[in-house]
Write a structure and sequence with these properties.
By secondary structure, this protein is of the alpha/beta class. It has helices at about 5-10, 30-35, 100-115, 130-140, 230-235, 240-245, 255-270, 285-290, 315-320, 330-335, 340-350, 370-375, 395-410, and strands at about 55-60, 65-75, 75-85, 90-95, 120-125, 145-150, 170-175, 190-195, 205-210, 215, 280, 310, 360. The chain is globular and about 60 Å long. Bound molecules: fe (ii) ion (FE2). Fe (ii) ion (FE2) binds near residues 219 and 220.
Length: about 425
Amino acid sequence: MDDSTLNESGTDRQLGRSPTPPLDNSDQSSDQSTDWRWPFWPIVPLYPYGNRRTLRTEVVKDTLWTFDQIQGIFYVTVPIRMTVVRLAAGGLLVYAPIAPTRECLRRLQELEAQYGEVKYIILPTVSGIEHKVFVGPFARQFRAAQVCVAPHQWSFPLNLPLSWLGLPPGRTHPLPDDPQDAPFADEFDYAVLGPINLGVGPFEEVAFFHRRSRTLLITDSIVSIPAEPPPVVQLDPFPLLFHARDRATDAIEDTPANRRKGWQRMALFAFYFSPGALEVPPWGEVLREAQKVGDRTRRNYFGLYPFRWKPGWQESFAALRGEGRLLVAPILQTLILNRAPQETLDWAAKVASWDFHRILPCHLDAPLAADSRQFRRAFAFLEKPVSGSEAIAPLPDADLELLKRLDGGFSRIKILPASKERI
Ligand SMILES: [Fe+2]
């Protein structure tokens, strides 16, 4: 990039905000209560509600950055991530924005000052409410940016126009059908998975391929689960230690082993909701135990801990993680992508035709050193096993039980269309 372009873009902000001096991620001098504040949390009331910390990581020097926050329910917290790409012609592209807290904005403004302003904001999903919710407030902070959204957007219970959902009119556009027609076609290719009809509204996400860095940007369809808690989850270890207990009354020391134990249980909750190794004791017992807990504050759920982990839960985690292999989340395997196996496999083949060596998903671990063969293999659950092909260990039936019950139940009462045969 030409230096004059960089300087011009960096100072000609047109954003209605004053330039902010650069701050390092470790900086603790600012007022955290306002720095992490996210006032719109009641719209999608996920933990950590009105307080969100942001961790920025430079993935490829001067080219690619990830911004991680966390989200969760009942202290089951996982990373949610946006990716920022420096454009060759100057400026930045933001894929899947996160909550624009002051801290998040400051870290992005630091990049703008160096590399040029945010030119494009991509909403790559129609169904991922946890991503959609941030795009309107985020776009309002970057008034010169074009907002490009996955086609077939919808809302529930009313199908409202995008401007009613906070997306800026006049500069919000669906991604063109042909990626060659996109304003960033010289640097990116993309492929739309869906729309997959789910009754209430379709599932759809858009994979982006950044050619220069050979990086695939993915929203929800692919994850990899780390054995250790991701750094952003460790910024506040309380949820990890909460789940590391075997009994409500256990005093848990903040050690790496306990953080790891809590994380692995959180991952089982996050992917299965009700993993096979989990027992919920009778509520009478839970209430009696709660009386003996020292910390009965709201933060500790008043001492309530309705979980018992059976021996062997670690094997369940090991099967889910599969040594960090690329994984299509069980909920997508059992309730969503099996409604459109051929369309999903066609999309996976298209994505696998790109020559990437790195994947940045919007959740869990990143960056992933992975290529197109590994990506394509993650979708083998949609295919009939062929003798001689690479076998993929299936996820344990005991862990999938709840999701399979939901699959059958939703299909029966026609909330979801029936699943289709493997190809
Ligand atoms: Fe998501």
